[in-house]
């Protein structure tokens, strides 16, 4: 019997304004090379969880293209690989299109793998979590459900809307929404370990309580009835819950201390690879403190920015504190600061674009400005 299978839960209210207009947050580009979902899939793979189901809420096209057959994440395909779980029945009914109904619609994934445990984790909370540690805590506790949390000291600014746990003697005694009223909080990482039989029971129980109940709802409801083990995660964590936080946390990775905390030789982050040539740095190029993906052509100044694949930056152009997605074009002489350019967008006529350091200016996919 397989010890554990994984479920990547994409049912969330995360909205990056224009970035999530045509795609789910999980497939949004990150650091010019990755998609947000790469981190949770890599955690699953590195934790030797080889059968993973991805609960897709909406807008699946870009996600299907990115995931392909799932081989890029080094899963043992003989043990299961990646399964895409889509609730077509309720795809156009928001009240019913939640994770519980998606699991019910795809119950064969849980039943056919015959695992002892199910690890559920989101894509929009970036961690480098070894799920085996959470499973070990779960087994030692004797509980049927484990919730993973992290102690944070900025809950008044970050993790707004996430669940804040009251933890006593390694047991979750209460769950409430973080409204930003206090700094210190034990924030749920929306990562859970279930006994498989318990998860199946919870799914049925949720239906009886309310047809609109999500997994988070039913856990809050059951908190008074069941012993829920609490496992503290102490590593890197960021909740990508808005365009502003996506921008802020992306640029944080230009700090070596931050990137070193996530990218480790013993914990690789996998992604879908593309065959593109090296970036060309032409005679007038100057690049400082930036991530630059393959295939770009640069003949201007780039500072403290993230440059995606196949980006063109013209002669004399200046790009500062900005994120440029693949295929975007910056015309010669343009000046960009605090800007996010989506895929295949072009700065052609408006040559001086500046957003706020906390609220970046966003250019939609394919737009010409």
Automatic annotation (TrEMBL):
Location of the Glucose-1-phosphate adenylyltransferase/Bifunctional protein GlmU-like C-terminal hexapeptide domain: 284-352
Enzyme Commission number(s) of this protein: 2.7.7.27
A molecular function (GO) term: glucose-1-phosphate adenylyltransferase activity
Record-level GO BP terms: glycogen biosynthetic process
A Pfam family this chain is assigned to: NTP_transferase
Residues annotated as transmembrane: none
EC supergroup of this enzyme: transferase
Segments forming domain Nucleotidyl transferase: 18-229
InterPro entries: ADP-Glc_PPase, GlgDAde_trans, GlmU/GlgC-like_hexapep, NTP_transferase_dom, Nucleotide-diphossugar_trans, Trimer_LpxA-like_sf
Domain of life: Bacteria
Keywords: Glycogen biosynthesis, Nucleotidyltransferase, Transferase
Entry similarity comment: Belongs to the bacterial/plant glucose-1-phosphate adenylyltransferase family.
Record PANTHER family: GLUCOSE-1-PHOSPHATE ADENYLYLTRANSFERASE-RELATED, GLYCOGEN BIOSYNTHESIS PROTEIN GLGD
Protein name per Swiss-Prot or TrEMBL: Glucose-1-phosphate adenylyltransferase subunit GlgD
Species the sequence originates in: Candidatus Erysipelatoclostridium merdavium
């Amino acid at each position: 019997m397989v010890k554990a299978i994984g479920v990547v839960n994409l049912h969330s209210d995360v909205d990056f304004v224009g970035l999530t207009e045509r795609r789910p947050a999980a497939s949004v580009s990150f650091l010019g090379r990755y998609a947000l979902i790469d981190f949770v899939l890599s955690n699953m793979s590195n934790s030797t969880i080889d059968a993973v189901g991805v609960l897709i809420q909406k807008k699946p096209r870009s996600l299907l293209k990115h995931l392909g057959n799932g081989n890029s994440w080094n899963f043992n395909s003989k043990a299961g690989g990646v399964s895409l779980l889509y609730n077509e029945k309720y795809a156009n009914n928001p009240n019913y299109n939640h994770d519980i109904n998606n699991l019910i619609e795809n119950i064969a994934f849980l039943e056919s793998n015959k695992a002892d445990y199910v690890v559920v984790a989101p894509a929009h909370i970036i961690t480098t979590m070894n799920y085996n540690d959470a499973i070990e805590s779960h087994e030692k506790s004797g509980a049927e459900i484990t919730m993973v949390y992290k102690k944070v000291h900025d809950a008044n600014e970050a993790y707004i809307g996430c669940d804040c746990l009251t933890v006593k003697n390694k047991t979750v005694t209460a769950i409430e929404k973080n409204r930003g009223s206090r700094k210190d909080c034990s924030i749920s990482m929306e990562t859970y370990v279930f006994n498989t039989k318990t998860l199946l029971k919870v799914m049925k129980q949720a239906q009886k309580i309310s047809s609109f109940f999500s997994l988070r709802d039913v856990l809050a409801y059951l908190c008074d009835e069941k012993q829920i083990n609490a496992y503290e995660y102490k590593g890197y964590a960021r909740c990508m819950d808005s365009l502003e936080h996506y921008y802020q946390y992306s640029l944080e990775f230009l700090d070596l201390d931050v990137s070193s905390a996530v990218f480790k030789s013993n914990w690789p982050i996998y992604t879908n690879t593309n065959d593109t040539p090296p970036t060309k740095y032409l005679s007038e190029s100057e690049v400082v403190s930036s991530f630059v993906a393959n295939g770009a052509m640069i003949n201007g100044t780039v500072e403290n920015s993230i440059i995606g694949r196949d980006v063109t930056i013209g002669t004399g152009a200046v790009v500062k504190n900005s994120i440029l997605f693949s295929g975007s074009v910056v015309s010669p002489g343009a000046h960009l600061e605090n800007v996010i350019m989506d895929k295949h967008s072009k700065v052609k006529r408006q040559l001086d674009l500046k957003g706020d350091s906390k609220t970046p200016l966003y250019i939609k996919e394919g737009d010409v400005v």
